[in-house]
Design goal:
mainly alpha; 2 strands; two-stranded antiparallel ribbon; 3 helices
């Protein structure tokens, strides 16, 4: 049997391990849909900083530069979930 606290760590850890990357992917693909709509349908150029379609070419700004707290925070939450899962699986009842 596992320690009761360790049993509670496993579901919380799994949630933190799975949900932040899914949220990041969701936000990324929502923006990607807007970019593709601008380029393919409207024949324009996507302004990554303003989040709008323009007629003139715009410089590319990586997602990590535009939303560093979202990207780094999501990855840190996922890492914390991994650690919680490992602790929840490895701790035994005394």
């Amino acid at each position: 049997m596992r320690h009761p606290t360790a049993q509670r760590l496993l579901p919380v850890g799994l949630t933190l391990l799975i949900l932040p990357p899914l949220g990041l992917m969701g936000a990324y693909f929502l923006e990607l849909g807007d970019v593709r709509d601008c380029q393919l349908i409207q024949q324009g150029h996507w302004d990554y900083l303003a989040g709008v379609c323009r007629d003139t070419p715009q410089p590319f700004e990586p997602w990590i530069d535009r939303r560093p707290w979202l990207v780094n925070g999501g990855l840190l939450l996922s890492l914390a979930g991994l650690v919680m899962c490992l602790v929840g699986r490895c701790v035994r009842r005394r």
